[in-house]
Amino acid sequence: MIHVSIVTGASRGIGKAIVDSILQTPGAKVVAIARSQTTLQSLKDKYGKDSFDFVAGDVTDENTAQKAIDVALTQFGQIDSIVANAGVLDPVGAINNTSIDDWKKLYDVNLFSIVQLIQLSLSELKRTKGNVVAVSSGAATKVYSGWYAYGSSKAALNHLIASLAAEEPSIQAISVAPGVVDTEMQQDIREKFGSNMSKEGLQRFIDLHEKKQLVPPEEPGRVYANLALKGWPSELNGQFLRYNDEKLVKYQ
């Protein structure tokens, strides 16, 4: 049975882990979106053109999103799920020290690119009774020092997903936080953005790294992949959950 997913931010970290996990399932196909042509091509070389294709480009560009949809439909014949993983953390800092232009750039990636991809793919998702899986964050509901823009964008994403689930009954939508994951974003927090956070806020992330308590990307990646492939019961539709919530145990 064929299942076709579009995965954004797919060249590294959680996104790559999602792709790797999805493609362990026979009949699964992925169209990936990311900026890194080289990494995406290496994934295509690994999995083959019958299982994997990609569009290298800016996820905020409507042309990039439309190309990915066109590739999925032309090459694989359908779209069954969208996994919205692409996200950025910058700007980090006090509210009076971050520019509105930088906020807008973050929102373009973390929210509006997802709205756009949903809009462009909605008719096909309705046809296949497909689903939208959003990679959210605990920062949507908890304050982290200097994360005004990132946290608020993820809160808006959660509302988008809840609204989509309520208003489009022929598809499913869910929002899931991945925990504190061992990715390049964590390295950026420690090395680039930490100076714009409180000492205590930064220290928490340093401690998690030094104590080797960061989550391997494969753990949440597997949950997102299984949600995309299997869907979920109606009582979970529209919810915001943590990847290791007991409600998601069968996806872990």
Keywords:
7 strands; 8 helices; globular; alpha/beta; 252 residues; Rossmann fold; 14% strand
Commentary on this structure:
With 252 residues, the protein is α/β, with parallel strands linked by helices. It has one domain (3-178, 217-251): NAD(P)-binding Rossmann-like Domain (Rossmann fold), CATH 3.40.50. It is built from eight helices and seven strands, in the order E-H-E-H-E-H-E-H-E-H-E-H-H-H-E. It has helices spanning 13-22, 37-47, 62-76, 100-128, 148-167, 184-193, 199-210, 218-230, and strands at residues 3-8, 28-34, 52-56, 81-84, 131-135, 172-177, 240-242. The protein has a seven-stranded parallel beta sheet with strand order 3-2-1-4-5-6-7, with helices on both faces. Helix 1 (13-22) packs across helix 8 (218-230) and helix 3 runs parallel beside helix 4. The longest helix is centred in the middle third of the chain and has 29 residues, at 100-128. The two termini are 22 Å apart.
Compose a concise summary of this entry.
It is built from 8 helices and 7 strands. The protein has about 250 residues and is an alpha/beta fold.
Largest sheet, described in full?
Answer: 7 strands, parallel
Beta-strand portion reads: 5-15%
Helical fraction: 40-55%
Q: What is the 3D shape?
A: globular
At the first level of CATH, what is the class? Answer: Alpha Beta
Could you outline the blueprint of secondary structure elements for this entry?
Layout: E1 3-8, H1 13-22, E2 28-34, H2 37-47, E3 52-56, H3 62-76, E4 81-84, H4 100-128, E5 131-135, H5 148-167, E6 172-177, H6 184-193, H7 199-210, H8 218-230, E7 240-242
Helix pairs in contact: 1-8, 3-4, 4-5
